[in-house]
Amino acid sequence: MRVLVVTDMQNDFIDGSLGTKEAVEIVDAAKAKIDRYLKQGDTVIYTQDTHTEAYLQTQEGQNLPVEHCIKGTPGWEISQSVYVSGCPVIEKPSFGSIELAKFIAEMKDIESIELIGICTDICVISNAMILKAKMPEIPIFVDASCCAGTTVENHKNALNAMKVCQIEVTGVKDHDVINEI
Known about the structure:
With 181 residues, the protein is an alpha/beta fold. Helix content is 35%, strand content 20%. The protein has helices at 11-14, 21-39, 59-63, 98-105, 120-134, 152-164; strands at residues 2-7, 43-49, 89-92, 112-118, 140-148, 168-170. It has a six-stranded parallel beta sheet with strand order 3-2-1-4-5-6. Helix 6 (152-164) links the parallel strand 5 and strand 6. Helix 4 packs across helix 5 (120-134) and helix 5 (120-134) packs parallel to helix 6 (152-164). It is globular. It starts with a strand and ends in an 11-residue tail after the last strand.
């Protein structure tokens, strides 16, 4: 079985308080990939960045003072453009999710794990690294064409960092030029 992790494809990260043009541009490709996984009988898991109203008092809120993904708000919701009802959703209060890694590690017959979503340089890379540490012998992929970073440069840097850590980067676009290692 293959597992697709759809990372934080939430309204605030697509076109809300922390949205970017690049995030809007990956929505259709992400939905197509989700549909392919489900059609093939594979597993799709969503992560959902989840903060409380006290976000600005947290360490993250002090470093990124932009309220986002406050539980129960429209910005916290996973975009209806990519969400498929019935798929598991893992709420996470931080960039990476140990709960996600435990959830996937308990699954049987995992052939590979692929990550897509937002932000390449924060939550995608954090979860990819946690998954790689938890399951070092399971191939882990990141599809660059279905990811968006906080900036184009940060997106590229994260792709390069993951490649160095033996996470296979696929779907590379011209502007994603990956350094050879």
